[in-house]
């Protein structure tokens, strides 16, 4: 799905009313109900006793009033704090204010600094704060009383503890966050979750303040997807299930292993056999027809004993137990590439100069698609421009910010300051697909098309998760080929994140093991199929 600017979102709303005969009031009703439903889904009833909804004067405040009414009808007792005087009937927000007053008297008006000061202590005791102050149409910086409220909400969130938690939910967008991706000139409310409508906004996906949107839910409130595609002019897409509706994700009954590719992984070294096992396990769980791990002779017994389903090939080793350059010069490795569909290389290979020379020779001379990660990328630090000088038409690199910094001669801070530009520039320069990992992983192609992923959680912030992604992307490439490789790579990134969500659904995310992530990959794929079937 395309990400939209604020102006494009207004045009989608206008055309929805014009073509679909869905009024602004109906859109507001659907939007507010979606926010209420989201809160009821993610928050247990026992933690929903003290709810404050902060409403501004515009349509965002109207969405908040609808949400308040639906929460009240569901048996909760929210308070509405309205910034400004009572809205007049005749507008969508004003009419919803009257509907709210019909079901509850718990309304306060914030019109002066003194009136806000009187409420701050109550806000600090709230368990749930819903931000409906400023919407996607914000121009300039948040200021005045609303700016003060944003700063105070952020302070409450910062001071929250496990014993006294608070959930902050933003309606459509966190107040103060620019929609079009530019840097904010004033305070931005930090939400744990944002429910936005119809399509994600560019600033929520890739901007300096994007993390302040928290987990992003995109609610469909009546506008056809075709309108988003028609109106959106940018090349930034959000990774969501519908993107994969046309892929052959369901296997026919007459399948055989030869249909799903032959994946070769080069991984592991002495002390890092686990990286090879994780990437090989992910390739198996990812559905490749055949998986072979080529690994240095000293660690082959360890790797081979981990899974009987994959095959192994011994590689000559350096004295440090890493892959030796002689594997390329004696043509042994070249013979392994024959009849293979795709090559995944890098996890746990080490940084011995001999090994790095082997990696560079392979990448420059192999003709099959290559997925390059970890120590495979480290081999090109100082040699990054040679990535474009290769025989294979298809190369995907998967750097985290530190690896990207080394490859591009930048600091990590500079990489993170403009992740989208960094990914697109390097994709064009290296003629490669770039997967810049991290919060909101970016998947960029050489032709300028780009996806941003929002699945996953902080459980992925642990050694081994990247090795899993390498094996998984290699397996998906083996199955689906490279005809629509950007989408296939986006599928892998999306399912990798969903697997983390599934694996931590009943536990704390800090304890997620990469091997558990591997085992959740088929569950993530099944969840995707169920989502597509539900939307069909």
Folded structure, characterized:
The protein is α/β, with parallel strands linked by helices. It folds into two domains: about 5-235, YjeF N-terminal domain (Rossmann fold), CATH 3.40.50; about 255-535, Ribokinase (UDP-N-acetylmuramoyl-L-alanine:D-glutamate ligase, 3-Layer(aba) Sandwich), CATH 3.40.1190. About 45% of the residues lie in helices and about 15% in strands. It is built from 20 helices and 17 strands. The chain has helices at about 5-20, 25-40, 60-75, 90-105, 115-125, 145-160, 200-205, 225-230, 275-285, 300-305, 325-330, 330-335, 355-365, 375-380, 400-410, 410-415, 420-430, 465-480, 485-505, 515-535, and strands at about 50-55, 80-85, 105-110, 130, 165-170, 195, 215-220, 235-240, 260-265, 290-295, 310-315, 340-345, 370, 395, 435, 440-445, 450. Strands 8-17-16-15-14-13-12-9-10-11 form a ten-stranded mixed sheet, sandwiched between helices. It has a seven-stranded parallel sheet with strand order 3-2-1-4-5-6-7, sandwiched between helices. Strand 6 (about 195), helix 7 (about 200-205) and strand 7 form a beta-alpha-beta unit. It is elongated, with a radius of gyration of 26 Å. The model has no long low-confidence stretch (mean pLDDT about 95).
In CATH terms, the superfamily of the largest domain is: Ribokinase
Q: What is the alpha-carbon Rg in Å? A: 26 Å
Highest CATH level, the class of the largest domain: Alpha Beta
> How much helicity do the residues have?
40-55%
Q: How would a textbook summarize the main sheet? A: 10 strands, mixed
Tell me which oligomeric state these chains represent: single chain
- What is the CATH architecture term of the largest domain? 3-Layer(aba) Sandwich
Low-confidence stretches: none
The tally of domains stands at 2
Helical element count?
A: 20
Distance between the termini: 16 Å
Q: Beta-sheet strand percentage? A: 5-15%
Broad structural category: alpha/beta
Total count of strands: 17
